[in-house]
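Before the break, one more example. Copy the sequence into your notebook; we will annotate it together after we see the structure.
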Amino acid sequence: MVTKLPKVPVVVVGMGWAGGIVSAELTKAGINVVGLERGKDRTTADYTMGHDELRYQHRTELMQDLSKETITYRNTVSGKALPMRHYGTFIVGDGVGGAGSHWNGQTYRFLPYDFEIRTKTIERYGIEKIPAWMEGLNDWGLTYDEMEPYYDTFEKMAGISGETVELWGKRTNPYPTPPLVKTPLMKEFEKAATSLGYKPFVIPAANLSESYTNPDGISRAACQYCAYCENFGCEYGAKGDPAVTVIPVAKQTGKLELRTHSNVVELTKNGGKATGVIYVDMLTGEKFEQPADVVVVASYVFNNARLLLNSGIGTPYDPKTGKGTIGKNYCYQITAGGSQLFFEDREFNLYGGAGALGIEIAEYMGDNFDHSEVDFIHGAGVRSTQYGDRPIAVNRVPAGTPSWGVEFKEKSIKYANSNFPVKTQGASLPHKENYLDLDPEFKDEFGYPLLRMTYEYTDNDRAMGKYMSTITRKIAEEIGADIIDTNEEQAPFNVNKDSNTHNTGGVIMGADPAASAVNTYLQMWEAENVFVVGASAFPHNSCFNPTGTLGALSYRASEGIQKYLKEGGILVKA
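Here is what the structure looks like once it is written out:
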């Protein structure tokens, strides 16, 4: 039995960054919002002295319970998909704040090149530079200049710490707080990179470099460099987190009704519009229908696509024909090409750090270098980071060391503070056979099909990784180490081992309804009162962490929802 509740103007599914920003902006405008979150509420008090690596990192307390809901995965369209049983590659948040509570805080803007990638690639290199299998590579439907005000709003709200870099085009304002400190490790990278002619910069961070009060009046303390950041909530509130920024603002308006332990399993519909959502109270097992004028789907990338597919809203993508849009252009990122350094007689105190503490060069990002003589497009950042090495998770040892036993233990201790990463993070561009759909066999605890991911690294990824290995090797040699291990080859994708956690696509944005699921306000072409907000909207993934762009798009979507409530219909770009 499903209990039907009174209709509301807006229901928001998921209370992470996307849902939190939308809820804050709409409630500040006087609009009543019901926010549904499948997990529990959290505040900084939940994390006080919570430096428990086993509990949070290895037993994944802040994450979705994979025994109840997971994804299935395969590497090829002809392969057999199996459920992901433990976290490796992906860490899907659960509870108020979502992944925005356990993220590390690196907060970039995407490049002007990213938003017009197809046009700019063809203009410089010709259409033949884009391989046939990359047919889904398209412009985003808006430019960096149009995105810039939304980036500025997000950075002010989150208090991003950084230094101005010309790489990202014009800026309305500098970052609201100065960059984080430069550690000895970062200074060594800076010295070597500068001597090779590069221009290193401190990574922009949502870990506050100093105390800060944002435009909404939210005050937060500075980062303590405790190293318990990624996979952890911040006990100081120093890390930008929707649970300590936008969600409290929405609550203070009195216009947000936050319902926790409310797991949305389906959107209801009538004709070409959604009529609301059905959710399960995870404490009692009761089912409720929440009617609404506007439905905002703002959960994790996988859950956004899965919810639409299970609700029959939008046309599923078919890799054989290229038709349909829901599930299209799933993208990841690459980390091949990095170098790991080891020293016999130097230490860097790697046990201290912050989630976004690091230094980077931009010369190989996007189209910042001439790609005429290489067989790939886009690029990667080259960086050295100091997140804080925790004793269970981090045991860096030279290549060839056994993975267990006496020698492993000895070298783990020997190199614990005597290693130095020079790593990459590269863009991921769409392949027509990398996509998301519903699994025909496996279901969740409520009987709904799980989401199936089909993904393998592409020729573009492999060529990029090999090229970047020459760059990181050169920097590593300039730094000077006793041992340098360079990863030159991109191994096949392994959902349980690969280390990047940035997933994008599946409900992509664009200017063409035939090639995209949502417009530039993240409003669905096929269901005008549904807005799908999050990194699921990215038509490709850049070489940057996605949260800054997710946040900026969430502010733009909030603007679009307000316009829709006043005007109705499919919105045109302002």
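The chain has one domain: 2-567. DSSP finds twelve helices and 22 strands in the chain. Try to locate both features in your own notes.
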